[in-house]
């Protein structure tokens, strides 16, 4: 006899009813001995069974009830038909909901009712010749084959949301914001001043022009005529030569410079971010490292020195080399992550960084040499004395060998012109006395430059006691100091790693002081006297770049540990996500370092190019002449690149000094004869700049008997010799 349960126990009701209809009767039970149930009772049991099945289907739809069981195995066709009649709504409902292997992809749902009686899982007719399920037409569609443009679109989409892509675009957007208003009038203004930036805008323009027209004359620039090797009188920014091939004239040179200026900041932030990530820091910790490296307050004083701002290749090359060698500060050496392609890329980026100038590139070269030496000693020591077999890989060794040779070759080729200049102009070489002039005192590490929006006005008194504050205000940021100090106590780095980072900070800050730390006898002077090329570094304070990078890594360790703790707290919450306040708390360090890096850098308008510079042939001399006067003249020459006697650099050649001294009486016979001896054909006197100079009177003096002619072109007086 079928036992009826309540409607809420749908599973038991269906199961008992299924046994009664589908299974064979026991041996001691005869079909004719089964008592006949009253008609009403049979109807009641059938209705209850049907109601239980409907309740179960509704529960399955809502996801709250058990999966209904189907008909049992065996039984004749009649029993199967009776079972189908009793549970038709249930099986139809299960089919409608898509349960089973082909309905929702979850194995086991509805499988008993769809397959155990011989029916196929897709709803086709099974044993007994039953009518096919009418829902079979709604089976799953065949899997579509993606087209080539579909695959390309997915790949592009994955690329656009990749971490490195987002980091690159974020760095670029932040660079535009943090350097604003550099790009407001990029064809007419320059950041900080128009002296050194004019020189560097000319350098990029000249390198591109020379490589396109006559590469053999690259180092013999059109300025400082008739000097040779004049392009090596200062850092060249040669790595930006491809940009110099685009556009002609001063406006193009200014636009190019300002774009590169913004991109240099973006690359610095991105490179430091990538390095911190490779070392094992979290995303927010790496962002702090990137921002502090690119926008430390002391760097605002270097806004007029693009070769100092262009330092992003340093952390980027280190990150690539570490990735290629499978090494991480947090996880150590992992041979399975080695990849020689990243090694090649790292050495090439390092070589490109070196090509931007030795002022920043030379210390980088010695750091790389030190890293290679220490790594080789440790590897051989563990291999020989401790018998530790760590695979290095032949291809990786070849990559390091070839990459290192490329880097060294670029360094040697770039150094040859500078050594030649030193031989031709021995007075250009720096002395310890020159270094002492630019060596900052300890107070410089807590003093911000005037360009700092947050601290500039507050530190005006502290700057006034510094002998040369543009190179002695070396504050990396008080927020960075605090985060780095916190990184000594709580960090993802080990205690030994923290102490090594701290030691690096102290060493680089000591070297940044030049001769101020015990006269540099045990720090800077030995490097100056014994390391090739080190004597060419005029300002030791720029070594603060390395202290800033190491402080940023310490800060990244602290912020990463804080972010991990936030994730742990959020995992303990129900539901497991951090509250908005916890999310905002992880952003506080980043907001603080960004705020300290905001600037109030002036954006002066560059003097426009005189019309005479577009028409007068060279060699020519523009008067008045001086370091600050000549750098804009170099920029004006980017239209025709005619030879000009004028020039500005880190030192003044004696011949140019003689020209300036003799030309004070121009036009007279002595100056005219001297300029003719040098090969000068034209002299341009700028009327709007000669107030208070001897030319204010002599520019209109008679030239009869001198064999020269005078012509007025706008506000410029042209003397043709």
UniProtKB/TrEMBL annotation:
Residues 1-142 are annotated as: Disordered. It comes from the Bacteria. Residues 62-71 have a biased composition (Low complexity). Keywords: Membrane, Transmembrane, Transmembrane helix. The keyword Transmembrane helix applies. The chain crosses the membrane at residues 159-180, 255-275, 366-385, 397-419, 474-492, 499-518, 543-563. Residues 40-61, 94-104 have a biased composition (Basic and acidic residues). The keyword Transit peptide does not apply. This is 4-amino-4-deoxy-L-arabinose transferase. It comes from Micromonospora phaseoli. The lineage of its organism: Bacteria, Bacillati, Actinomycetota, Actinomycetes, Micromonosporales.
């Amino acid at each position: 006899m079928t036992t009826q349960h309540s409607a809420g126990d749908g599973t038991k009701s269906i199961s008992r009813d299924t046994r009664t209809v589908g299974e064979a009767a026991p041996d001691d039970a005869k079909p004719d001995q089964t008592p006949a149930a009253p008609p009403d009772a049979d109807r009641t049991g059938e209705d209850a069974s049907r109601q239980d099945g409907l309740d179960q289907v509704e529960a399955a739809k809502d996801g709250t009830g058990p999966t209904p069981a189907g008909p049992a195995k065996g039984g004749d066709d009649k029993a199967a038909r009776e079972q189908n009649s009793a549970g038709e709504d249930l099986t139809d409902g299960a089919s409608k909901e898509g349960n089973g292997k082909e309905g929702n992809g979850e194995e086991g749902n509805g499988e008993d009712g769809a397959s155990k009686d011989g029916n196929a899982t897709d709803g086709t007719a099974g044993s007994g010749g039953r009518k096919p399920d009418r829902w079979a037409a709604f089976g799953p569609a065949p899997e579509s084959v993606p087209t080539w443009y579909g695959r390309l679109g997915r790949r592009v989409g994955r690329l656009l949301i990749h971490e490195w892509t987002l980091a690159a675009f974020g760095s670029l957007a932040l660079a535009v914001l943090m350097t604003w208003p550099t790009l407001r009038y990029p064809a007419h203004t320059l950041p900080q001043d128009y002296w050194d930036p004019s020189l560097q805008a000319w350098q990029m323009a000249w390198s591109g022009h020379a490589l396109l027209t006559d590469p053999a004359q690259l180092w013999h620039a059109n300025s400082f005529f008739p000097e040779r090797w004049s392009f090596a009188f200062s850092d060249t920014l040669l790595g930006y030569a491809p940009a110099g091939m685009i556009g002609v004239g001063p406006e193009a040179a200014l636009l190019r410079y300002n774009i590169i200026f913004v991109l240099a900041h973006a690359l610095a932030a991105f490179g430091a971010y990538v390095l911190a990530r490779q070392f094992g820091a979290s995303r927010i910790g790496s962002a702090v490292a990137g921002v502090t490296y690119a926008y430390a307050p002391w760097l605002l004083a270097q806004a007029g020195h693009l070769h100092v701002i262009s330092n992003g290749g340093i952390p980027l090359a280190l990150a690539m080399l570490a990735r290629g060698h499978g090494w991480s500060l947090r996880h150590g050496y992992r041979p399975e992550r080695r990849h020689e392609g990243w090694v090649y890329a790292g050495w090439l980026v390092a070589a490109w960084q070196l090509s931007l100038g030795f002022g920043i590139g030379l210390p980088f070269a010695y750091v790389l040499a030190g890293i290679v030496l220490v790594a080789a000693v440790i590897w051989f020591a563990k291999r020989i004395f401790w018998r530790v077999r760590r695979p290095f890989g032949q291809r990786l060794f070849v990559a390091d060998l070839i990459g290192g040779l490329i880097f060294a070759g670029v360094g040697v080729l770039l150094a040859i012109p500078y050594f030649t200049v030193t031989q031709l102009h021995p007075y250009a070489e720096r002395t310890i006395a020159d270094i002492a002039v630019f060596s900052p005192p300890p107070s410089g590490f807590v003093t911000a430059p005037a360009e700092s929006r947050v601290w500039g006005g507050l530190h005006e008194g502290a700057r006034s006691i510094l002998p040369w504050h543009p190179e002695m205000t070396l504050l990396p940021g008080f927020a960075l100091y605090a985060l780095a100090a916190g990184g000594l106590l709580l960090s993802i780095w080990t205690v030994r790693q923290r102490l090594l980072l701290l030691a690096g900070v102290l060493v680089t800050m000591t070297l940044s002081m030049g001769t101020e730390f015990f006269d540099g006898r045990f720090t800077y002077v030995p490097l100056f006297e014994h390391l090739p090329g080190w004597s060419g570094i005029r300002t030791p304070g720029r070594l603060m770049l390395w202290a800033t990078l190491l402080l940023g890594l310490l800060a990244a360790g602290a912020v990463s540990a804080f972010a991990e703790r936030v994730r742990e707290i959020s995992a303990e919450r129900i539901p497991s996500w951090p509250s908005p306040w916890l999310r905002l708390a992880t952003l506080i360090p980043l907001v603080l370092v960004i705020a300290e890096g905001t600037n109030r850098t002036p954006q002066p308008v560059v003097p426009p190019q005189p019309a005479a510079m577009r028409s007068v042939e060279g060699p020519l001399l523009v008067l008045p002449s001086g370091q600050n006067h000549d750098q804009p003249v170099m920029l004006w020459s980017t239209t025709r690149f005619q030879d000009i006697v004028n020039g500005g650099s880190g030192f003044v050649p004696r011949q140019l000094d003689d020209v300036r001294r003799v030309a004070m009486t121009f036009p007279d016979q002595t100056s005219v004869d001297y300029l003719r001896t040098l090969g000068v054909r034209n002299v341009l006197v700028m009327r709007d700049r000669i107030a208070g100079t001897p030319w204010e009177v002599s520019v209109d003096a008679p030239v009869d008997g001198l064999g020269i002619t005078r012509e007025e072109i706008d506000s410029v007086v042209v003397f043709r010799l």
